[in-house]
Amino acid sequence: MTELADKQIITLGGEPGTASRVAAAMRGDHAEFGRLTEPYRRELQAHCYRIMGSLHDAEDIVQETFLRAWRRLSTYEGRSSFRAWLYKIATNACFDALQKHPKRFLVQPYQGPADPLSPPAGPIAEPVWLEPYPDEWLMMAESASGPEARYAVRESVTLAFMTALQALPPRQRAVLILRDVLDWPAREVADLLDMTLSAVNSALHRARETLERRYHRDGLDAAPRLPSDPTVLALLNRYVHAWEAADITTLVDLLQEDAILSMPPMPTWFRGRAAVVDFLAVIAFGGDAAGRWRLAPVQSNGQPAFGLYQRDDHGIYRAFGLQVLTIAADVGCVVAITSFMDPRWLRHFGLPDEMPV
User: Fold this and answer.
1) Are 133 and 49 in contact (CB under 8 A)?
2) pTM of the model as a whole
3) Would you state the pLDDT for residue 219?
4) 8 A C-beta contact, residue 217 and residue 329
5) What is the pLDDT of residue 8?
6) What is the pLDDT of residues 160-186, one digit of tens each?
7) Is 102 a residue whose pLDDT tops 80?
């Protein structure tokens, strides 16, 4: 790249310390480009996850974002920060991907709760399900949110919030994330999305109205205070005991009256303590079930979660799936159990495929 271009990047603004790296990357330095972009990987993944509802899609789109950024680096003039430029590329890549993918959800929007005494339906393999997101990754992206954000970083990826978010049209979704989660000024959002300021404000107003109808945080512990909160910790310890000892009585005590159990990618779901317990009593705890299950605590989507392991015929506990709990900490009960029925999820949370006996 020419000396003029180097000076242009410096004089047109940008983040401190990035100008020389951008100039080096423009001259074809792949290593410098990696050092320039890698610090933004986790926050871009979280951003793309909120828009897409899929961890796998988010990972792919961030890779695509870096590829597009490398190819278009000569178009970066420094009028906005390099971070904002990457967000623009990532957001547009999400919009492109959403044109090819259906909306994601946790329970079928057109199918009611099932009879717990009937066989569950087979899994739906198409990419229609919300996916879990490791809190460890989220911790690396927390600095992306501003101090006046309407929604805290952890709350903004809870399953309840994500379910409501997916009901928004893509552009409204992006506006709400950028304004209310990341706390970006309206003018910067307008520049990023190529919208007028009035269009951004209008989209944000409509998005907030929709979210208020669909997302209710009252009573839910959106960011569990683990492990310091003794009430939450006691609840979770009892939950682990109920599963590992096949203690139906304890499980009944822990569930809210209208608790929900969903099991993506299976479309079958259950509503109500009685229905959830009836199903689990036959499927999970049927027969001599004491010691059949082991639970490994993790955190997913700003919520308590467990890697679920099932004992095989050889006495080895093998990965079975990931359970994410929605809890009402004020009354000490479980509102929802979301069981992602794919053992491969555990690897994203740093858990092994087998648990020692």
Assistant:
1) yes
2) 0.91
3) 53
4) no
5) 38
6) 999 999 999 999 999 999 999 999 999
7) yes
Give the list of residues 6+ apart from residue 14 with CB closer than 8 angstroms, or none.
Answer: 22, 78, 80, 81, 82
Q: Are strands 255-263 and 333-340 parallel, antiparallel or unpaired?
A: parallel
Mean pLDDT of 104-117: 85
Cα separation, 54 vs 130, in Å, equals 6
- Label residue 120 exposed, middle or buried (CB < 10 Å: 0-12, 13-18, 19+): middle
Residue reference for tokens 């467990």: 306
Whether the Cβ atoms of residue 251 and residue 242 lie closer than 8 Å to each other: yes
In the chain the domains, ranked by start, together with CATH numbers, are 1-101 (1.10.1740.10), 132-218 (1.10.10.10), 230-355 (3.10.450.50)
Q: CB-hemisphere CA count at 13 Å for 160?
A: 25
Q: Which residues contact 280 (CB under 8 A, 6 or more apart)?
A: 248, 251, 261
CB burial string 128-143: b at 16+ within 10 A, e below: bbbbbbbbebbeebee
3-state secondary structure the chain: CCHHHHHHHHHCCCCCCCHHHHHHHHCCCHHHHHHHHHHHHHHHHHHHHHHHCCHHHHHHHHHHHHHHHHHCHHHCCCCCCHHHHHHHHHHHHHHHHHCCCCCCECCCCCCCCCCCCCCCCCCCCCCCECCCCEHHHHHCCHHHCCCCCCCCCCHHHCHHHHHHHCCCCHHHHHHHHHHHHCCCCHHHHHHHHCCCHHHHHHHHHHHHHHHHHHCCCCCCCCCCCCCCCHHHHHHHHHHHHHHHCCCHHHHHHHEEEEEEEEECCEEEEEECHHHHHHHHHHHCCCCCCCCCEEEEEEEECCEEEEEEEEECCCCCEEEEEEEEEEEECCCCEEEEEEEECCCCHHHHCCCCCEECC
Q: What percent of the chain has pLDDT over 90?
A: 72
- Beta-bridge mates of residue 297: 306
